[in-house]
From TrEMBL:
<comment type="similarity">
    <text>Belongs to the cytochrome P450 family.</text>
</comment>
<dbReference type="GO" id="GO:0016705">
    <property type="term" value="F:oxidoreductase activity, acting on paired donors, with incorporation or reduction of molecular oxygen"/>
</dbReference>
<keyword id="KW-0963">Cytoplasm</keyword>
<dbReference type="GO" id="GO:0020037">
    <property type="term" value="F:heme binding"/>
</dbReference>
<protein>
    <recommendedName>
        <fullName>Cytochrome P450</fullName>
    </recommendedName>
</protein>
<keyword id="KW-0408">Iron</keyword>
<keyword id="KW-0503">Monooxygenase</keyword>
<dbReference type="GO" id="GO:0004497">
    <property type="term" value="F:monooxygenase activity"/>
</dbReference>
<dbReference type="GO" id="GO:0005506">
    <property type="term" value="F:iron ion binding"/>
</dbReference>
<dbReference type="GO" id="GO:0005737">
    <property type="term" value="C:cytoplasm"/>
</dbReference>
<dbReference type="Pfam" id="PF00067">
    <property type="entry name" value="p450"/>
</dbReference>
<keyword id="KW-0479">Metal-binding</keyword>
<dbReference type="InterPro" id="IPR036396">
    <property type="entry name" value="Cyt_P450_sf"/>
</dbReference>
<dbReference type="InterPro" id="IPR017972">
    <property type="entry name" value="Cyt_P450_CS"/>
</dbReference>
<keyword id="KW-0349">Heme</keyword>
<dbReference type="InterPro" id="IPR001128">
    <property type="entry name" value="Cyt_P450"/>
</dbReference>
<dbReference type="InterPro" id="IPR002397">
    <property type="entry name" value="Cyt_P450_B"/>
</dbReference>
Amino acid sequence: MTGSTQEDSFTEHYWRDPHAALAGTRETCPVREVDFEGGRTWLVTRYADVRAWLADQRLAKDWRSSLPAEERAAAPPGLPAPMSHMLTSLDPPEHTRLRGLVTQAFTARRIAALRPRVEAVAEELLAELPEDEPVDLVARYAIVLPMVVISELLGVPEIDREEFARLSTVLIDECPEPELLAASTQMATYLEGLVAAKRAAPDDALLSALITASDEGDRLSDLEIVAMAMLLLMAGHETTAVFITNSVRALVADDSARERLADPEAVPSLVEELLRWLSPALNASLRFATEDLEIGGVAIPRGASVMLSTGAANRDPERFADPDVLDPDRNTTGHLAFGYGIHRCLGAALVRLEGEVGLAALFNRFPELRVVADPDELTFRRSVHVHAPRTLPVVLGPRKR
């Protein structure tokens, strides 16, 4: 079998069953080149390698850092400017400065204070759903719950939220470049207008707080504010939506795990194991080698792009015993569902909260929920980073009285 055929086999297998494809390459070729995100990328799949390199700044997030200094200024522009100013595309010191400005909004204490509102949103959404006819749980619940929460946190008007959900899906899924450019430009343009509106009439939401910080300390440009808002809107609901969707599929098939949702004290450990087992973000966003490197015994040349697979790492038997088994009693310490190091997911506590509330509210009110779609007929999103069905038809069944 030729290298090209092997690669084609891996990528096609990945789109169908990413966990199986990642497991296969972790066992046989744990550091290998693949054709992802429109170009050649080194895929790293062993836990020890992934964890170590998530924290190693020789893999930069800004692709220009891998270029010789004299070539960086001449680097061709790509997506609209806000896309290259997101935290996920920056390295220290810019990353340190920007992250410090929003970290206070995502502390564990602040997120815990949101629980009553998240519970209320979940109740409102579930109250609107029919009990005895098929309903798409993705469109009516899994996407809407986190979108409402992050929009309220940022201060995005309700009328615009559905369109934001559509645009962020385009930006995360694989799509033709013209469509990607159009979606990113549309989102950036809207947010530029929203920033201007918040500056003229501030409120108590996060976006106004970022503007105030900029005006008082001259620490954030409008471009950086727009980039931050774009990232938080996208990441603030996509990960949770994928997580809730895939968790529902897992829990419907596992009576023992599902029953734990009735015990509030058991819910956090169940959600933590689901995070490890499902890895809502299967692969971290691209990094770029700033010098010639060796990862897992494989030479990586300067300038090469590297993708660290948190999904493969979280099912590495060298780190977690029987990793393909969903075990709510497992010690999940050290899982990489939210990454590791300075780029660890800013909204990890929010995802946990929305997962705990969203799943418990759903199954405690509809314990007879069942998926009514044939698994072979589900259509999955084609994305390097997430794997979830586009729709999930369920019948909720009678509410628990």
